[in-house]
Amino acid sequence: MSTAFINRSDVEPRLRGIIARIAKVDPGTIGVDDDLAVTLGIDSLSALRIAAAVETEFAITIPDERLHEIRSLGQLADLVVAAAGLQVVEVIHTGPRRRRIPPVMGDQIPER
């Protein structure tokens, strides 16, 4: 999984590019702590587009109820890093389990 060891310094430039593309601004004008709605005029539809692009880019899911909490690039970066980390934990802990396979008719069942 590409998000296994993701950190904020890897995430911010990619997020800045996504936000800049959707807001149609120069990526260099987006500060980490800038309020995206106030500074860039990001409305709810643009926020949904950003969220969809971020989910695709980082292979994560951003819960809908968290969208209204994200006001800045920095907050979005923190959310991406946290979501990527949670997914890695889930992958590690939900690995294959040993299952008992029932015998097929005619198979010998070993004695214990």
Molecular structure report:
- This protein is mainly alpha-helical.
- It has one domain: Orthogonal Bundle (Non-ribosomal Peptide Synthetase Peptidyl Carrier Protein, Chain A).
- Helices cover 54% and strands 0% of the residues.
- α1 packs across α3 and α1 packs across α5.
- About 16% of the residues have low confidence.
Structural class category: mainly alpha
Looking at the overall shape, the CATH architecture is Orthogonal Bundle
Mean pLDDT: 79
Domain unit count: 1
What is the makeup of the main sheet? none
Q: Shape from CA axes?
A: globular
Per DSSP E runs of 2 or more residues, the count of β-strands stands at 0
Low-confidence stretches: 87-95, 99-107
Helical proportion? 40-55%
Characteristic terms for this protein:
mainly alpha, Non-ribosomal Peptide Synthetase Peptidyl Carrier Protein, Chain A, 54% helix, 5 helices, 0% strand
Give a short synopsis of this structure:
The chain is an all-alpha fold and 112 residues long. It contains five helices and no strands.
